[in-house]
Amino acid sequence: MVIRRQRPAWLDIAANRLNQKWTARELIGRALWELLRGPLFSWTPRHLWGWRRGVLRLFGAKIGREVHIYPTVKITIPWNLDFGTHAAVGDRVILYALGPITIGERTTVSQGAHICAGSHDYNDPTMPLTKRPIHVGDEAWICADAFVGPGVTIGARAIVGARAVAMRDVADDAIVVGNPARVIKVRTRSLEDPAA
């Protein structure tokens, strides 16, 4: 018979659960959002872009003109969101907005992408919640099923390829793919482009 000695637990799960992660106001806001998200947001017809913008503004999101957010988008905390004009967020996107998420102007977040502004400090035995902001620059494209991690900045006009995992900043105009995401190309603009 082999007797295994159990190592002492390093993680303090009880302390983690006792940590105050949210204010009373935030908890009430989150409860209201969860209660009303279905009928006011998720169950709306696809073409009611303006209605969903209005609902998100009601819950504190900053939203530019003509932003298109699909009804199947999963939003954790709307008041942590800031969308630039003409941004688009596709079907089944997860905006895990425990911390602030900024989506730039004319930026596209494609179907199934996951933008995750929340994690835990694994160096601390109590594993405290971290809420690191994410910024996605103007005219960037987060492709289908891509993942953008906490604290990451995606540069202007950058492309995070399908199913790529961006856990570090991505420079302006960079095209990244893979896990972890690596640069494979840099976007160039034509000489006829007035912004070039």
Largest sheet: 7 strands, mixed
Mean pLDDT across every amino acid position: 93
CATH superfamily: Hexapeptide repeat proteins
The count of helical stretches stands at: 3
CATH topology: UDP N-Acetylglucosamine Acyltransferase, domain 1
Beta-strand residue fraction? 15-25%
Approximate helicity band? 10-25%
- Runs in which pLDDT lies below 50 for 5 or more consecutive residues are none
Total number of beta strands: 19
Classification by helices and strands: alpha/beta
Strand order of the largest sheet: 2-5-8-13-16-18-19
Count of the separate structural domains? 1
At the first level of CATH, the class is: Mainly Beta
Description:
With 196 residues, the chain is of the alpha/beta class. It has a single domain, classed as UDP N-Acetylglucosamine Acyltransferase, domain 1. Helix content is 18%, strand content 24%. It contains 3 helices and 19 strands. The mean pLDDT is 93.
Topology:
Layout: H1 13-18, H2 24-42, H3 49-58, E1 62-63, E2 68-69, E3 74-75, E4 81-83, E5 88-89, E6 94-96, E7 101-103, E8 108-109, E9 114-116, E10 119-120, E11 129-130, E12 134-136, E13 141-142, E14 147-148, E15 153-154, E16 159-160, E17 165-166, E18 174-177, E19 182-186
Parallel strand pairs: 1-4, 2-5, 3-6, 4-7, 5-8, 6-9, 7-12, 8-13, 9-14, 12-15, 13-16, 14-17, 16-18
Antiparallel strand pairs: 10-11, 18-19
Give a summary of the structure in a few sentences.
The protein contains 3 helices and 19 strands. With 196 residues, it is of the alpha/beta class.
